[in-house]
Amino acid sequence: MPIPGNPLGKTLVYVLENERGPVLIDAGWEHPEAWKALKAGLTGLGTAIEDVYGVVVTHMHPDHAGLAGRIRERSGAWVAMHRADAEVITHMRADLENPNGEDLGDWIGRAGASPEEQDAMRANDGRPDPPAMPDRLLEDGDLVDLPGRTLRTIWTPGHSPGHICLHLEDRDLLFTGDHVLPEITPHVGLYPYDRPEVDPLGGYLASLERTAAMGVEDAMPAHQYSFTGISRRAKEIIEHHEERLAEVRALLGDEPQTLWTLATRCVWSYSWEKMPPISHHLAVGETAAHLRTLEKRGQARRTGGHPLSYVR
Ligand SMILES: [Zn+2]
Ligand SMILES: [Zn+2]
What are residue 82's DSSP bridge partners? Predict the structure, then answer.
């Protein structure tokens, strides 16, 4: 299904046959083009949106959960996701309803961005609406309601707190969502940038170790294309983040530097000046996640809260 205007291009939505009606893995972006593609795809398989029995969402991002609510309205399907991502949706909704809540301009200000950079962020704060709340919550090891077949929940936090992979045990293949993709690495960020007690990147690396050790090699990811060699790819992604951790570590010195400055000094696929403001926010979140893992390893230390600053 297309993700209009996004460089990712498309979300791969999977349809699992069973006696009660199709179960979808992920639902795609909420956009008329995506809805049209979903209808056409299901028609091509001899079924329809009205027949959908359930939607299991790998994680709450809009390119995965976006249309889940609309499919449920049409078909009466259940919508399932991991409890931790349902909690994220609850927080997103509370933030939207809080008139005194912080905006992304406030966030990057605390990271050390200038007032001009904060204004540019506020002019571009286009966060999508939170997706529909699930009516079924999944925990690690739970079986998804797929009559006659065995689809097990594998909790792989990192890209989101409640990201799950789904192991179709009767075919021994793994739906990997955004956790393991063949040629790109998913975004792993810390939000808010100084949120205490969580280590998303440390969690992601542990999830990758776990996925590599499963012994399942056939991957059905949510972007790009299906591939064989999950353990090899998971190890490559671990290596990539170890390199990034070393890069961030090498930027640290004895003088405190703000989170914003450290993010601007990292190497990104696009030059910092050419990135739109929202990409600055994501780059700062990703830098913060790497700093948190370094803090946990005793290789970085936070010195200040306003703005957030770090030394080695
Ligand atoms: Zn995602
Ligand atoms: Zn995605």
Answer: 138
Is-contact 59 84, C-beta < 8 A?
A: no
pLDDT (tens digit per residue) in 248-260: 999 999 999 999 9
CA of 65 to the centre of ligand 1 (A): 10
CA of 298 to the centre of ligand 2 (A): 32
**Distance separating alpha carbons of residues 304 and 250, to the nearest angstrom:** 20
**Separation of CA 222 and ligand 2 centre (Å):** 6
Please give the CATH architecture assigned to the domain spanning 14-250: 4-Layer Sandwich (3.60)
Cα 259 to ligand 2 centre (Å)? 26
How far, in Å, is the centroid of ligand 2 from the Cα of 64?
6
Distance 75 CA to ligand 1 centre (A): 25
pLDDT in tens, 16-25: 999 999 999 9
